[in-house]
Amino acid sequence: MNFNDYKAKIFSERPDVKEEYEALGPQYEIICAEIKCRKALGITQKELAERMGTAQANISRFESGNYNPSLAFLQKMAQSLGKTLKISME
């Protein structure tokens, strides 16, 4: 059984797990976008942290999903990566 089959099985058996999984989607989308941008620029977590004026540990926690960033943190991160932060509600 591959991962997608396993996930479908669990989701059909446990709607609560599916709901929690889907709720985490936006968080992981922004994390993946940040990592992709950082790697495209060829900079380390430490270099990004220096650009942002924060500790490397904060970048590490953010990238591992163990940090609930403020809007100001996300704005500073986007600016430090040469990007614009856009937030939408659909």
TrEMBL record:
Task: Show the CDD domains listed in the entry.
Answer: HTH_XRE
Q: Which Gene3D superfamilies match?
A: lambda repressor-like DNA-binding domains
In alphabetical order, the GO MF annotations are: DNA binding
Kindly give the SMART domains that the UniProt entry links to this protein: HTH_XRE
Looking at the record, the residues that make up the HTH cro/C1-type domain are: 38-88
Q: Which UniProt keywords apply?
A: DNA-binding
Which PROSITE patterns does this one have? HTH_CROC1 (PS50943)
Q: Enumerate the InterPro entries for this protein.
A: Cro/C1-type_HTH, Lambda_DNA-bd_dom_sf
- One Pfam entry name: HTH_3
- Entry superkingdom: Bacteria
Q: Which residues form the signal peptide?
A: none
Entry protein name: DNA-binding helix-turn-helix protein
